[in-house]
Each structure stands twice: as structure tokens, then as C-alpha cells.
Amino acid sequence: MIDFGIKDIVDIIIVGGLLYYLYRVMKSSGTLSLFYGVLLFIMIWVVAAEIFDMRLTGTILDKFMSIGLIVLVILFQDQLKRFLIDIGSRGHLKHLKRLFSHGRQDEDHTAYHALVMSVVYACMSMSKSKTGALICFQRKMPLDDYEKTGDIIDAEINTRLIENIFFKNSPLHDGAMIIARRRIQSVGCILPVSHDMNLPKHLGLRHRAALGMSQASDALCVVVSEETGNISVAKDGVLASKITSTDLEKYLSSSFD
Fold first, then answer.
1. Exposure check for the chain: N or C terminus, fewer CB within 10 A?
2. Is 0.70 topped by the overall pTM?
3. Per-residue confidence (pLDDT) for residue 228, from 0 to 100
4. What is the distance between the alpha carbons of residues 94 and 22, in angstroms, rounded to a whole number?
5. Distance of alpha carbon 248 from its chain centroid, rounded?
6. 206 near 134, Cβ under 8 Å?
7. What CA–CA distance (Å, rounded) separates 28 from 32?
8. Which stretches within the chain are classed as H helix?
């Protein structure tokens, strides 16, 4: 008789939750087919070795499984890094912090909204003048490695400063601006480029870099098109085009930290 209790139900729920979370991460990073391949391999191994007791096939697959953890770490190192950072992120403690800083909440919200609107105004102004721009906002995952690829300026967020940096004749207008910890940390940064073949052909390198960054991390990226002036937002591996000022404010208010 099979002994099946509450502990087994909890075990199944935990494994199912982890698989679902990995599915979401792989989907947003464009590596879903690789995830399916690994899952299929594990299923074949379980069926051959555990259910049908195929000795030869099971032995061969056991050898692969013995080094499987190392292979998975190599293949999914970016996704595993994102997963672990998300678990240990201080973002999960925000609700507890609010209980102890209730008196400052209104004041902090006003300052926070002012920073968001500074970015919104800059993007709308650059949109009208068709000035190309790429701004990346750190969320839970640190972007220190990407900050080092550009010039560190560590400046206060200011509408006119953002516009001047992305001005066509500015020496710092190429590359991305990274905003973290409510400050402009670095400009002229190099971001990973997405190789998604489903992207429309008219989208340029800035859009591919924004999407690639949103796939490699949990960052939110804003793009101002130099050709059309349209504003796009890349978040969690999804690119939203032709964003209005109201939509941009909502995106930043929910993600900008």
C-alpha cells in the first residue's frame, strides 16, 4: 500500500512551484525550447531507469545525470543568478519596512514621484525632437557589471541632464544610461543584445539591446526611437511599443527603485 500523506502533497507543490517559476524565467529569457529539452531528458531518464528498469539505457543516462547539475549551471547561469537574487532580494521586505516608516511614507512618495516625472518629461521631450535614447532602470537584480562598461557619473536624476547626455553631439549619447538607487549611475553602457527573430525588422539596435537586457535581468528599459520618436518599454522579456506619457509613468512608478 502506498503511503501518501501531507508531506508528499507539500513536496509536490514545492516542485511544481519551482518548475512553474523556471518556466516563466525561461520564457522571458527566450530559452524556453532549451528548458523543454532538459525536462524531456529528465522524463526519459525517469521512465527508462525507474519505471521500466532498463539497465543499459539507465546506466548511460545515469552518467549524464551525474554531471547534469554542472551542465545546467553552465547553460542557465544567468537564469539561476536571477532566480537566487530574486529569492534573496530585499524587495520582499518592503512591506515590513513600511510598518516602521509610516511617518515618512508621504514624504518619500512625493520625492519618488518627482524622480519618475523627471524621466517622463525627458523622454517626452526627446520623443518630440526624435532624439534616440536608451535608459535602463535597476530593479531587484544589481547591474554593477553593466555599469562598469560605461562612464560612471553618479549624478542626481534631472530632466535637463538626461536630455543633454543623449543630445546627438554629446560624446556620451551612444550606449545606455543606467539608473539605480535613484541616481544616474553610469552612461554609455553596453547591454546584451536580443537575438529574437520575431522582432520587427524596423526596430534598431537600441530596441534589441533593451529587450536583451530585460531577458538577461529583471531591469526595465525605456527606448526613444531616433527614427520615429516612439517610446518603447522592455520588461520581463516583452517589448511594448508606442507608449504614452501616462503609460510610461505607470511603468516607472511600479518598477523604478
1. N
2. no
3. 93
4. 24
5. 17
6. yes
7. 8
8. 6-29, 32-45, 55-66, 68-75, 77-88, 94-100, 105-129, 144-147, 159-165, 205-216, 245-255
Using an 8 Å Cβ cutoff, are 125 and 231 in contact?
Answer: no
Residue 192 in 3-state DSSP? coil
Determine how β-strand 231-235 pairs with β-strand 151-156.
Answer: unpaired
Residue 96 has pLDDT above 50, yes or no: no
For the cut 70, the answer to whether the pLDDT of residue 81 exceeds it is no
Other residues' Cβ atoms within 10 Å of the Cβ of residue 169? 5
Location of C-alpha cell 536571477: 82
Measured over the CA atoms of residue 233, residue 238, residue 239 and residue 245, the dihedral's sign is negative
Residue 18 identity (one-letter amino acid): L
Cell numbers for 47: 521512465
Give Cβ neighbours of residue 65 (< 8 Å, ≥ 6 apart): 45
